[in-house]
Amino acid sequence: MNPENVSRIKDALQKSRLTVFLGGAGVSVASGIPDFRSPGGLYSQKRADGRRYEELLSSDYFFEDTKGFYDFYWEKMVAPLAKPNAAHLALAEFERSHSLAILTQNIDGLHQMAGSKRVYELHGTTARYHCLGCGKKFGIEELERHGVPHCPHCGGIIKPDVVLYGEGLPEDALFGGIEAVSKADVLLVAGTSLRVYPVASIPQYFRGGLAVIFNAEPTPQDVNFDIVVRDDLTTALPEVLR
Known about the structure:
By secondary structure, this protein is α/β, with parallel strands linked by helices. It has seven helices and nine strands; from the N terminus they run αβαααβαββββαβββα. The chain has three domains: about 5-35 and about 85-125 and about 165-240, Rossmann fold (3-Layer(aba) Sandwich), CATH 3.40.50.1220; about 40-75, no CATH class; about 125-160. Strand 2, helix 5 (about 110-115) and strand 3 (about 120) form a beta-alpha-beta unit.
């Protein structure tokens, strides 16, 4: 990273009363979880029947072909062996001595696994599930990770607490995250294309002093940031947070 930028970011972080980190799929790539929209990402791939993976993550498809959804979901969306990478760990370490809120589009739970406490899961999580029949809640450890899970109490279909296309974002995470951004002194954005709304609109609520984006590819909002970093996230983020 440019030494001037490193110094500028570190200085702002030292003075910040609240720092907010907004992260997307790129944050977990180094943990072995593929992103979605980059060349070679999940959405550039197709199933054997020609359906694009992006189509399989819709609410319509969940109810149209629940078994087909879960066959895809267990194989591609749940990563039980994934571990936090250097970016996750650096954020958790930073939070131990600074006020930090994390807004994540990821559903993998790696921020919490790394030790982060204040995490707004904007797209839900693969860790939690609920019965569509009786509403009973389940953790992933209570489910067999194959086929369609059914509620042992009422026999209803169990659905993951993951936001699918056609569904709204959880209001507590969305509005809680927006409030944090509006009060932050520093905004760090990483690993996201900033093309998918409403999450792409969240940076506009920032009124603080320094906004930084770490992303391998240009985004349509780069011009709105004070510093744009193209370096490897697992190196650059720990460098400025250390």
